[in-house]
Amino acid sequence: MEMDEYAIGLDLGGTKILAGLVNSEGQMISQAQLPTTSEDGEKAVIERVLAAIESVMSDKKVNRRRVRGVGIASAGVIDSKTNEIIFASNLGWSNVPIGKLIEDKFNLPVRLMNDANASAVAEWMWGAGKGTANMIYVTVSTGVGAGIISDGRLLSGIDGSAGEFGHISIDWNGPLCLCGNRGCLEIYSSGTAIENAARTALANGDTAISASLLHGSKELTAKQIGEAALRGDRFSIDILKRAGFYLGVGATSLIHLFNPEVIVFGGGVMNTAPIILQEIEKSVRERCIPGMASQVRIELNRLGVESGVVGAAGLLFSEWEHERKLQIF
Ligand SMILES: [Zn+2]
């Protein structure tokens, strides 16, 4: 234990900041959580980020000199070269040099990545993708995103934006997406899409759904639809199955491009895994090049809400490992 290496992972979310001191086995030794409260302004949030890091760094069981760096997982558009958050709507931030601020204060290397990429690293190193060199993690929640591990490394692209799976087009003539493309996968398969599908049916006067889903409330969330589906509500099941079908269409392209051993699905919508995951699998099996389909597994994520923190730290471990191998050969 004494000689173990550590990295700090921090998940910077719209509602909370979660920092963890992570060992090389992917275990969180200590953690600190603070509310983000972004309405207090950028400076206040940055101070809380620094305080959360300081708090886990001060763990008395751990020698500070064995802490090798800080990984930050953030939603929004990031630049992994400059370690800047370019735009994050959930924080109301643009062009915040978060990496440099942390580096200056703690004198440690910092890696900034988007939250899907962080969770991908976590599942790869310590979850459902453990032991593989080619895997893809797909998150399905409000939006759809992915992190790609290719030949034993996180594929980051030129600035860390690689893996925008939700914005591959599955219909060239489909509705315009906020990103500028048309017919993006997430328009058909995200939690938001699931809510929209149910709302449209409600607006069309489908009384069967209002009775089974709404229970008198006006809200209609993907979570409610998922719970209704798991209770056996036919209408909700159909909506989820359709989302699963589209995810399988998208996943087929991922398989054709990256030839992964496993695709791991996570995110809030996967609470309905007993329904949606087999639909994804079915859609993949129908469409994928047979030789490639037979080699890929479709699996559910194993790590929970801490995967952002653990994976952000994990990226630092994986980079040292990679450098160590390069030095040997
Ligand atoms: Zn898009």
What does this structure look like?
The protein is α/β, with parallel strands linked by helices and 329 residues long. The protein folds into two domains: 6-122, ATPase, nucleotide binding domain (Nucleotidyltransferase, domain 5, 2-Layer Sandwich); 130-300, 2-Layer Sandwich (Nucleotidyltransferase, domain 5), CATH 3.30.420.40. The protein is built from eleven helices and 13 strands. The chain has helices at 42-57, 98-106, 115-126, 185-189, 191-203, 207-214, 222-230, 234-258, 273-287, 290-293, 307-328, and strands at residues 6-12, 16-23, 28-35, 67-74, 77-79, 84-88, 93-96, 110-114, 135-140, 144-150, 153-154, 262-266, 297-300. The chain has a five-stranded mixed sheet with strand order 3-2-1-4-8. A hairpin with a 3-residue loop joins strand 9 and strand 10 (144-150). It is globular and about 60 Å long. It binds zinc ion.
Give the low-confidence spans. Answer: none
Helix-strand makeup class: alpha/beta
Assigned CATH class of the largest domain: Alpha Beta
CATH superfamily of the largest domain: ATPase, nucleotide binding domain
N-to-C SSE string, H for helix and E for strand: EEEHEEEEHEHEEEHHHHHEHHEH
Determine the number of helices (DSSP H or I, runs of at least 4 residues). Answer: 11
The average pLDDT value, as a whole number, equals 93
CATH topology tier name of the largest domain: Nucleotidyltransferase, domain 5
Bound molecules: zinc ion
Arrangement of strands in the largest sheet: 3-2-1-4-8
C-alpha geometry:
globular
Sheet bearing the most strands, described?
5 strands, mixed
Termini Cα gap? 28 Å
Which percent range describes the beta-strand content? 15-25%
